[in-house]
Amino acid sequence: MTIDEDVRRPGLEQATPADRPPASRLARMVGFGFVAAVVLALVLMLGYGLASKQGNTGNSLLAHEAPNFTIELFDGSALTLSSLRGQPVVVNFWASWCSTCREEAADVEKVWRDYKDREVVFVGVNVSDARQDALDYIKEFDITYSNGPDRGKNIYDAYGVTGFPETFFVNRQGIVVRKFVGPIDQQTLAAFVEDLLQ
CA 27 to CA 122: how far, in whole Å? Predict the structure, then answer.
């Protein structure tokens, strides 16, 4: 008897997918369910890990201590945020190529000049910019408050900035009390600075 004859014997025919017993289908369904559960668990763990890595950023910085930083200013000096404890601080993130930053530039400078004699400190954090372009921007808008480049985007990341401009308001105790996204006008900025002075 040849192998071909064996295969043709009754009871030895190969089963087609439709002929498989229900237990086989159940096993496949359980296997698929297991794989789906593992994939879902991995996705959830990845999401949790990313959230944990970012920590208190963006809106979650509100009512928390402002992340400390030291920035080398364009004038060659350095500024450390923690050294300003006891003074209200406005931290503004900007870039010279950002059209909405240009909308607010004159207003931010005007409010700085109005409040600089009341112990309020403004700090401009320039991100993703060529040094000369940033300097040209500062000259164009006659900006006199402290400004420096955020090389490596470390400050940007610590604050959870998602675009430009973004402005953070830090009270005398070093707590972030407000965040403003987008170009801020003179009246709104002045009102927020007044709140810091209360």
Answer: 66
